[in-house]
């Protein structure tokens, strides 16, 4: 599908992988709506790329509807949804003091990462369904969701995060089947270790990142957000990519810790 001249909505577009994707798609002619909680960064990036920012909590129905309405209001046909909003969490099922994992923190991670992804996908897909098809095949649009390799081999203390990302992986095939009725493809990317603000900027963060890189096979470094954004564009542009879960990880396989 040609991205030029169409609109995209990107959750988490104010930072990291979502930001890089917003820049990539705008550079290839898309009008981008950034749906994110971070107003300052979101607005600044939207201004830079000629897009629109809408302050959005992806887990909130009304706020996501407002963001999708803003994408429709750009006057360009909404064709692309990229779910990149997400939060990390580290807590053991039973901690060293013998206390069980907090239920509230588990719910919060599921709410943002999994329910937030579903929420934007469903509301944006309903808007895409109202557009004219762009190909003889009846294509109308593409959804790209962001899970994690932690969905497949979560480490110690990643239970909530892995459950949320595993849910995104699990939704991929049924979502692609459901949305085929309206000409929408769905793919999910599972990133490994990509250098974004999610790891923070403290000296500890640098140490932590160096440790994470050790099991990467090749190239022996963290991934770059622009490499992720390139993959998103490939998944949008290649019409035969559908219902796929793609590892994007330099060959890393997580160890228990
Ligand atoms: N960076 C990595 O190594 C890595 C690896 C695997 C998966 N991921 C996933 O990729 C996605 C993007 O991660 P990133 O590294 O770019 O992180 P990031 O922290 O740089 O960006 C995440 C963005 O999501 C936004 N956000 C958080 N909660 C939100 C909510 N409720 N509603 C709307 N926006 C919200 C934040 O404001 C932020 O702008 C996440 O889902 C993350 O879990 C990242």
Number of strands: 7
* Helix-strand pattern: EHEHEHEHEHHEHHE
Assigned CATH class: Alpha Beta
| Class derived from helix and strand content | alpha/beta
Helix residue percentage: 40-55%
Instruction: State the CATH topology.
Output: Rossmann fold
Biggest sheet statistics: 7 strands, parallel
CATH superfamily: NAD(P)-binding Rossmann-like Domain
- Cα shape: globular
N- to C-terminal distance: 41 Å
How many helices does DSSP assign? 8
Uncertain stretches: none
Radius of gyration: 18 Å
Number of domains: 1
Q: How much of the sequence is in beta strands? A: 15-25%
Bound molecules: nicotinamide-adenine-dinucleotide
CATH architecture: 3-Layer(aba) Sandwich
Q: Quick check: average pLDDT?
A: 97
Give me the side-by-side strand order of the main sheet.
3-2-1-4-5-6-7
Structure write-up:
With 257 residues, the protein is an alpha/beta fold. It has one domain: NAD(P)-binding Rossmann-like Domain (Rossmann fold, 3-Layer(aba) Sandwich). The protein is built from 8 helices and 7 strands, in the order E-H-E-H-E-H-E-H-E-H-H-E-H-H-E. Strands 3-2-1-4-5-6-7 form a 7-stranded parallel β-sheet, with helices on both faces. Helix 1 (16-27) crosses helix 8 (225-237), helix 3 (61-73) runs parallel beside helix 4 (103-128) and helix 4 packs parallel to helix 6. Nicotinamide-adenine-dinucleotide (NAD) is lined by residues 11-12, 14-18, 36-38, 56-59, 84-87, 112, 116, 146, 148, 191, 193-194, 196-198.
